[in-house]
Write a structure and sequence with these properties.
This protein is an alpha/beta fold. It has 13 helices and six strands.
Length: about 260
């Protein structure tokens, strides 16, 4: 069995090798990602009990929903910087792609003032399914969207969108009421004010919806470095948290100087 020191060195080497962000990220095929995703528990030295496993996100039972990430709505977002919102949303999409998790995205009125979906989002999730709506404010009021979600067979929804208090909260509350386990990714969502976002989080939390951040979803999906695609996960951490990449680079340079 590898020592803790050896595992640490392997981990740092993997992250360092994957943290060159100037190179384009090569996404695995869906089959490759699903095979790699099986290691999110196999790589653990202790098999979690059913209760312990249920306490964290199960990527094998999840579908990611991206709701109304539209450029017109971005102009009304005031609780998070739009650049951070866009970056987190893209990172969230890449997490789903890396793990082979089904992705569904939608927009209410892309040809109206709400604007088109941010252009970098579809590019980050080539396996995603787009479902147009007929003007419904809540995606859960659209028959085609609900059908698409149900067809995945997954019972855990990871939702992000703009606005948090409407486009995220409405379908989240409706899906939760129908028996789904629901996560709301707060920093990949945006709202008209901090007050609106805070109120939405409290309302959703009271209904049993789980508020999380993109980094939380990344770590719960990744789960262990003891997996064959560890280097690609290291690249996602470095992309989502640039300071993390800097920490690894500084450590590696210090180790080189000490030799």
């Amino acid at each position: 069995m590898k020592s803790i020191k050896q595992l640490g060195k392997s981990f740092l080497a993997l992250v360092a090798g994957a943290s060159i962000l100037m190179q384009p990220m090569v996404l695995p095929t869906l089959a490759q990602a699903q095979e790699a995703n099986d290691f999110h528990l196999k790589g653990l030295s202790h098999k979690p009990s059913e209760a312990a496993n249920a306490a964290l996100l199960d990527p094998n039972d999840a579908v990611f929903l991206f709701l109304d990430h539209q450029t017109g709505l971005f102009q009304t977002v005031n609780d998070i910087s739009v650049s951070e919102l866009r970056a987190n949303t893209v990172a969230l999409a890449k997490i789903a792609e890396q793990a082979g998790i089904p992705i569904i995205y939608t927009a209410s009125e892309p040809d109206g003032p709400n604007g088109p979906i941010m252009e970098e989002l579809p590019a980050a999730m080539p396996s995603a399914q787009y479902v147009p709506r007929q003007g419904e404010v809540s995606s859960w009021d659209n028959a085609d969207f609900v059908k698409a979600v149900k067809s995945t067979g997954k019972k855990t929804l990871v939702i992000s969108g703009v606005w948090t208090s409407v486009c995220v909260a409405f379908p989240a509350l409706q899906a939760k009421a129908e028996g789904y386990k629901v996560y709301a990714v707060m920093d990949a969502s945006g709202d008209v004010s901090k007050m609106a976002s805070d109120a939405a989080r409290e309302r959703m939390s009271a209904a049993g919806i789980i508020p999380v951040t993109t980094n939380t979803i990344l770590s719960e999906t990744h789960r262990t470095w003891n997996r064959p695609d560890a280097a690609k996960w290291g690249g996602l951490y470095s992309e989502l948290v640039p300071e993390y990449r800097a920490a690894v680079e500084s450590y590696n340079r210090a180790q080189e100087a000490a030799k």
